[in-house]
Amino acid sequence: MSLKFCPKCGNKLEPDASFCNTCGADVKVRETTVQIPTAQTIKSSQTPLTQPETVIYANFLKRLIALFFDSIIVGAIGSVFSWFLFASWLPINILDPLGGFWFSVPFDFVFGFLYHWGLETYNKGQTIGKMALNIRTVDEKTLKLASSSHYALNNILKGSPLLILDFIIGVLKNSGDSKNRIRIMQNISETVVILSR
Q1: CA separation for the pair 181, 59 (Å, rounded)
Q2: How far apart are CA 141 and CA 195, in angstroms?
Q3: Residue 140: pLDDT above 60?
Q4: Where does the chain cross the membrane (predicted)?
Q5: For the whole model, what pTM was predicted?
């Protein structure tokens, strides 16, 4: 079987030609070294790396302890900021003229989200609590760092009381999951938590 077009310039070749008439490329050598990919090689090159043998998914206890550490950090820093920003001890507080602390709830939610999302995005999938326990959040298909938007989806409920609902639905849906996903937002964001080495 001979080539119909030159692989170098794309010009149409004459049947059984050894060289291209336009560019002079040797098409006989090219003809003998061309390998036609089989369906199996095409399929294997297009499927992403899903689960190497060495990956260990983080268990529930490690993740709970990491969340506990992170909650202490978020709570302490968020309380200090909200106390200064929304303090009723000031005669007139521009940010909280009515003197109620209910304005601090959205602030604490935003701060908690930014803490989890920012650290996971810019710190290789780890918050301070996850660094202490040597675990990280990664993309579930490639097991590499996830995109910033996936980290945002994963952490959108971490700064709010809706985290409890996220956990309950996740446990019901993911019971028996081999990837140890325990929150529904992990399914939506396509992320998993693994032990880092």
Answers
A1: 9
A2: 16
A3: yes
A4: 64-86, 98-117
A5: 0.66
